[in-house]
Amino acid sequence: MSGETITIKGADGSFTGYLSKPASGTGPGIVVIQEIFGVNKVMRDLTDAYAAAGYVALCPDLFWRIEPGIDITDQTEAEWKQAFDLFGKFDVDKGVTDIAATIKTLRPMTTGKVGAVGYCLGGQLAYLTACHTDADAAVGYYGVNIQNRLDDAKGIKAPLMLHIAGKDEFVPPEAQEEVVKGLHGNTHVTIHRYPEMDHAFARPGGAHYDKKTADEANDRTMKFFARHLA
């Protein structure tokens, strides 16, 4: 399965996204939210995988304001340096605006409901997507800096699932506890914790990839979307 590049009209200009459709041509929608490496092969493969599972999947280029078309890996020190530079320049709130535009672009191609799933930087953005957009469900994997945006949680009106890595090198234990405590009692939120996992345990080819745990988290994600986007 291979997708195509489409144009998304945003509030501040147009940007591109990688679109992949299921064999049936339509289905519920999923916005796939990138890590700090851009719309790279990992993200395109994920987008294709969601399409293979029956979803119309769209991965927007959220770094377009800084540099369109970023497509790097996590395999070299130079690429990590570039990724962290992009992360430092990235405006999270503008990113949420772009995700809202992506949802608006995607929804007419679907059977009606649109969810979002994000990883790393995208994990935080998936959380903020639940807080500030009309997404019907959202899932965040090892989101960074969510503890700094807990006031936004009052905007959550649709189901949100978070996967937290207990040994996340970018989210210290005290930050994880802040998130769990801050979202405790919110009936829209489900949190799964993986005590022995490090950041990006679900990224194939990554240094901390753990297939068994990734499969477990991904299974929970697919069941969550099946329940809330059908």
CATH hierarchy class name: Alpha Beta
Strand order of the largest sheet: 1-2-4-3-5-6-7-8
The percentage of residues in β strands lies in: 15-25%
**Radius of gyration, in angstroms, nearest whole number:** 16 Å
Oligomer: single chain
Distance between the termini: 22 Å
Mean pLDDT: 97
Descriptive account of the structure:
This protein has six helices and eight strands; from the N terminus they run βββαβααβαββαβα. It has 230 residues and is α/β, with parallel strands linked by helices. It has one domain: Alpha/Beta hydrolase fold, catalytic domain (Rossmann fold, 3-Layer(aba) Sandwich), CATH 3.40.50.1820. α1 links the parallel β3 and β4.
Q: What would you say about this model in short?
A:
By secondary structure, the protein is α/β, with parallel strands linked by helices.
Which key terms come to mind for this protein?
230 residues; alpha/beta; Rossmann fold; eight-stranded mixed β-sheet; 21% strand; globular
Q: What topology does this entry show?
A:
Blueprint: E1 4-10, E2 13-20, E3 29-33, H1 41-52, E4 56-60, H2 77-89, H3 92-106, E5 114-119, H4 121-132, E6 137-141, E7 160-165, H5 173-183, E8 189-194, H6 211-229
Parallel strand pairs: 3-4, 3-5, 5-6, 6-7, 7-8
Antiparallel strand pairs: 1-2, 2-4
